[in-house]
């Protein structure tokens, strides 16, 4: 039995969350998700658009959580990534890029395994399937089991709302509008999904549009 970990930062519009996944794998079998550690901090990275240096405090705090959960001897083998969603997509490009560069700088100074593309902004199509959908399906054991019906997701975020599901037939994918389908690969299998993100229709964005006002600062 082999055990390994993966660390995912979800930089949303209302907060930054860390997911620490623990997997176990028997020889010649698909890895099983055996545990997840979760912690969230507010506000989101986008709240620090005008104070980039301050944005790093929360990232460092969440990295300390990862150091406690992942055995030290596995740190250098444990991949570390951050995916930003609607909060950063709504920022001017230059401000969003500076925030990402700050996070990458902190990641590269950490003891975990970091690639050049460890920090990025997800487009609307990728936002759900590569994160929540794959985790939920894996936990429920519904991917790869033809006897079980797949799950679908409606994700109400702060800056956007997403819908994602695994279609029963190829016809659904073929007749979907351009930009409403995607695919992701997990454990040597590719899954084709219907997925679309409605930018600006998240809880906080809709509230601001209806009631007026300005976004708060940390």
TrEMBL record:
Its EC number is 3.6.1.6. It comes from the Eukaryota. GO terms for molecular function: ATP binding; nucleoside diphosphate phosphatase activity. GO terms for cellular component: Golgi apparatus. The active site is at 127 (proton acceptor). ATP binds at residues 158-162. Keywords: ATP-binding, Hydrolase, Nucleotide-binding. Belongs to the GDA1/CD39 NTPase family. This is nucleoside diphosphate phosphatase.
């Amino acid at each position: 039995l082999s055990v390994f970990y993966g660390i995912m930062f979800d930089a949303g519009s209302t907060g930054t969350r860390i997911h620490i996944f623990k997997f176990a794998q028997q020889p010649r079998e698909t890895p099983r998700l055996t545990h997840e550690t979760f912690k969230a901090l507010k506000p989101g990275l986008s709240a620090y658009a005008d104070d980039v240096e301050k944005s790093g405090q929360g990232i460092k705090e969440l990295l300390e959580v990862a150091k406690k959960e992942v055995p030290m001897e596995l740190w250098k083998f444990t991949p570390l990534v951050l995916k930003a969603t609607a909060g950063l997509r709504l920022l001017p490009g230059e401000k969003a890029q500076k925030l990402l560069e700050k996070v990458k700088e902190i990641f590269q100074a950490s003891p975990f395994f970091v690639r050049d593309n460890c920090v990025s902004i997800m487009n609307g199509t990728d936002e759900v399937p590569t994160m929540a959908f794959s985790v939920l399906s894996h936990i429920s054991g519904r991917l790869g089991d033809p006897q079980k019906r797949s799950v679908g997701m409606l994700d109400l975020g702060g800056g956007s709302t997403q819908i994602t599901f695994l279609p029963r037939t190829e016809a659904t994918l073929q007749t979907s509008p351009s930009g409403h389908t995607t695919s992701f690969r997990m454990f040597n299998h590719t899954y084709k999904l219907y997925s679309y993100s409605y930018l600006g229709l998240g809880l906080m964005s809709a509230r601001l549009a209806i009631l007026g006002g300005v976004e708060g600062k940390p």
